[in-house]
């Protein structure tokens, strides 16, 4: 499909630079089938889904994966994208023309990395020197990797260490937050449990590729970056049981959705999964694992806007986004939410 079919105009003032407080006070646009749009709040979620339904969260934890440093006299920046092994990470490098294979980059605090390889997409394999775990080095030298549409408008600060992490964060490895779950609070989870709605977790380490624009003119020519994920056997069994009894599996976030769909066969059975996925969902895709999605508002011509268009229909989502823009909803990572129920 032509990528420009997924374009829309977004006023800059609609981009949220801080999250709502409290988190569950964010607004939520409910899009249900072809019915009228409903303007609600995230705190209303327990009233909008049924007892026996299950919400699926991503428990990945964002690491301080943004590094600023030098190679000799040249300033460079590195955004870690994907772990390769205990000491190696794939990274997008700013001012990459000043970095060559074999060079040592210095990131402050005694943190250094060797540029071991330059990959076909222009990214580098960085080998972090020393004996300390890379996570310890990043805590010392790194900052939270805010999306460019936020970082370009204000500096990252100490508050982002808390704001850009979900309450479910357990497994270190993401370089972008699964932002749909940023809206959840202990109070909201308690109300969900009281309503008889279940919760499950899986792990997908979100990569910086989630921010990359689609540069191709046609979706067939776009190459997705892979991300590592895991679904345990017992979680898969419980989710299969939910659907067998006629209830719904609702993904909280596109990351949860993409991993669930990657782990599900044509027979509709969710299976345990551990490995990379580069699934790219566009209109025409037949969903196998999920019955709904809670997600924030996404960028024009992005793979994520294509995904929600696959779920609800492209024209329907264009109408929903036009409604959200006119209604002054807040967009992107720190913005408001939507509940999509086809």
TrEMBL record:
MF terms per GO, please? S-adenosylmethionine:tRNA ribosyltransferase-isomerase activity
For this protein, the record's InterPro entries field holds: QueA, QueA_dom1, QueA_dom2, QueA_sf
The entry's localization annotation reads: Cytoplasm
Q: What class of enzyme is it?
A: transferase
Report the pathway entry.
tRNA modification; tRNA-queuosine biosynthesis
The record's Gene Ontology biological-process terms are: tRNA queuosine(34) biosynthetic process
Q: What is its main location?
A: cytoplasm
Q: Does the record bear Transferase in its keywords? A: yes
* Catalytic reaction equation(s): 7-aminomethyl-7-carbaguanosine(34) in tRNA + S-adenosyl-L-methionine = epoxyqueuosine(34) in tRNA + adenine + L-methionine + 2 H(+)
Name of one Pfam family that matches = Queuosine_synth
Cellular component terms (Gene Ontology): cytoplasm
Q: Does the keyword S-adenosyl-L-methionine apply?
A: yes
Q: What is its EC number?
A: 2.4.99.17
Q: Give the source's domain of life in one word.
A: Bacteria
**Alphabetical keyword list:** Cytoplasm, Glycosyltransferase, Isomerase, Queuosine biosynthesis, S-adenosyl-L-methionine, Transferase
Q: What is the stated purpose of this protein?
A: Transfers and isomerizes the ribose moiety from AdoMet to the 7-aminomethyl group of 7-deazaguanine (preQ1-tRNA) to give epoxyqueuosine (oQ-tRNA).
Q: Kindly state the subunit structure of this protein.
A: Monomer.
Q: PANTHER family, from UniProt?
A: S-ADENOSYLMETHIONINE:TRNA RIBOSYLTRANSFERASE-ISOMERASE
Q: Which family does it belong to?
A: Belongs to the QueA family.
Report what the protein is called. S-adenosylmethionine:tRNA ribosyltransferase-isomerase
- State the organism named in the record: Qipengyuania vulgaris
């Amino acid at each position: 499909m032509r990528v420009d079919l997924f374009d829309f105009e977004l006023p800059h003032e609609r981009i949220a630079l801080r999250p709502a407080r409290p988190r569950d006070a964010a607004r939520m646009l409910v899009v249900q089938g072809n019915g009228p749009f409903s303007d609600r709040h995230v705190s209303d979620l327990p009233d909008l889904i049924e007892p026996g339904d299950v919400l699926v969260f991503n428990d990945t934890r964002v690491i301080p994966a943004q590094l600023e440093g030098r190679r000799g006299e040249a300033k460079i920046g590195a955004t870690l994208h994907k772990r390769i092994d205990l000491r190696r990470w794939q990274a997008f490098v700013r001012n990459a023309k000043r970095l060559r294979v074999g060079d040592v980059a210095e990131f402050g605090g005694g943190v250094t990395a060797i540029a071991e390889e330059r990959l076909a997409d222009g990214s580098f394999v960085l080998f972090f020197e020393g004996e300390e775990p890379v996570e310890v080095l990043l805590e010392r030298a790194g900052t939270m990797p805010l999306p460019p549409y936020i970082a370009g408008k204000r500096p990252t600060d100490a508050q982002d260490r808390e704001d850009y992490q979900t309450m479910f964060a357990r497994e270190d490895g993401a370089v972008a937050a699964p932002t749909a779950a940023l809206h959840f609070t202990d109070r909201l989870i308690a109300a969900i449990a009281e309503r008889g709605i279940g919760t499950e977790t899986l792990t997908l380490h979100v990569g910086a590729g989630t921010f990359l624009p689609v540069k191709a003119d046609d979706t067939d020519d776009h190459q997705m970056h892979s991300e590592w994920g895991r679904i345990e056997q017992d979680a898969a069994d419980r989710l299969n049981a939910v659907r067998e009894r006629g209830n719904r599996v609702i993904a909280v976030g596109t990351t949860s959705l993409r991993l669930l769909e990657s782990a599900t066969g044509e027979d509709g059975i969710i299976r345990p999964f551990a490995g990379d996925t580069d699934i790219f969902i566009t209109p025409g895709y037949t969903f196998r694992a999920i019955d709904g999605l809670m997600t924030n508002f996404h960028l024009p011509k992005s793979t994520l806007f294509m995904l929600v268009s696959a779920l609800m229909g492209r024209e329907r989502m264009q109408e929903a986004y036009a409604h959200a823009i006119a209604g002054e909803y807040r967009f992107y990572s720190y913005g408001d939410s939507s509940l999509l129920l086809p």
